[in-house]
Amino acid sequence: MASVAFSGAAAAATAATTSRRLPASAKLSLSSSSSSSLKLLGSTPIVSRLFLNPKRCSAAPLPSRAFNSAAAAPKCLASDLEQLKLAREDIRELLKTTFSHPILVRLGWHDAGTYNKNIEEWPRRGGANGSLRFEIELKHAANAGLVNALKLIQPLKDKYSDVTYADLFQLASATAVEEAGGPKIPMKYGRVDVSAPEQCPEEGRLPSAGPPSPADHLREVFYRMGLNDKEIVALSGAHTLGRSRPDRSGWGKPETKYTKDGPGAPGGQSWTAQWLKFDNSYFTDIKEKKDEDLLVLPTDGVLFEDPAFKVYAEKYAEDQEAFFKDYAEAHAKLSNLGAKFDPPEGIVIDDGPSQSVPEKFVAAKYSSGKRELSENMKQKIRAEYQAVGGSPDKPLQSNYFLNIIIVIGVLALLTSLVGN
């Protein structure tokens, strides 16, 4: 059972997405409660790998004259590019059998969401640094159940030792959104891990689901991270994924018509009918409030009550494309909060060179259009449009190509008359 609730009580509600069918790489028993899971975690050999898994470095051969210089030190980037690519493919396969999209999104969010923009020192400032793998942080109330997400990720960490926990958490989160039908997240990698539990942030930096003043609470928490009202509403839209269980948080129903048959462990109450599909139904369903089987937390409902939040909530309910665009940007921003990158510019997973053919220039295609033009295309047609009083930024109301044809036809007719 899982939720992407980026909140204390709601997070506790969504302890973990558990599958009846786990791949061989993830054959670890998943506890049904966070407390028993932590007890299990602390009593098994996995604890040494979860809490102390040092990054390995390999030095390239150096000239003999360099051995006594600083240049002889091995270069060790935070994560290996090829292993990142392979890990992403394994995460995609994991999602197909575990239906763990919601809890993996939540894992990445909760590792990043402890960031405090008012603290400059790393890692004291919190953020996406892999600290959530330590037991002391897993025991925070907002992280109830995330031990199960860690158990899903640990086999990947064992397999790809040259990828940091911080990167794996964010890679899993972004991949889960994309595989659920959401937008492509413009991610970068190379995050450095903290090395000890003493570097974990104090409890209380994550939001709760039912505060007395939901709008004020959301702003207090997200403004501290450097996020704005638009980003708060866009990120809230990830509640389109996941469920909440009352026996773990006090929120939601034991089961609904949407959750009684799973997939994964049955039960709980979801925010949307198709709670493993990433779309804008979270906003449409909250706006309508017609289905009693769908969950609406105080921090959800306030999005259509607070005047500033409502502007974006209404927009996303009407325009899924706008929601996807803003969500992708906000998710990427959240995933970078507080992170220290090595290399400093980060690592981008390149899917290979594009084989697409450049778009053929057809002026008529853009003469009446609502289609957004690229800068290159605008430059190509600017000169032609300006000659007849238009521009790519303000297309002519009539069909430009048709006008040209008419002019040519009139000139041909005049030429024929003059000739006769």
TrEMBL record:
Comp. bias (Basic and acidic residues): 244-260
InterPro entries hit by this protein: Ccp1-like, Haem_peroxidase, Haem_peroxidase_sf, Peroxidase_I, Peroxidases_heam-ligand_BS
Cofactor: heme b
Top-level enzyme category: oxidoreductase
Keywords: Iron, Membrane, Metal-binding, Oxidoreductase, Peroxidase, Transmembrane, Transmembrane helix
Keyword presence, Oxidoreductase: yes
GO MF: peroxidase activity
Assigned EC number: 1.11.1.11
Record bears the keyword Coiled coil: no
Ranges for domain Plant heme peroxidase family profile: 163-389
Transmembrane segments: 400-419
Superkingdom, taxonomy of origin: Eukaryota
Alphabetized PROSITE patterns for the sequence: PEROXIDASE_1 (PS00435), PEROXIDASE_4 (PS50873)
Region (Disordered): 238-269
Record-stated family: Belongs to the peroxidase family. Ascorbate peroxidase subfamily.
Protein's UniProt name: L-ascorbate peroxidase
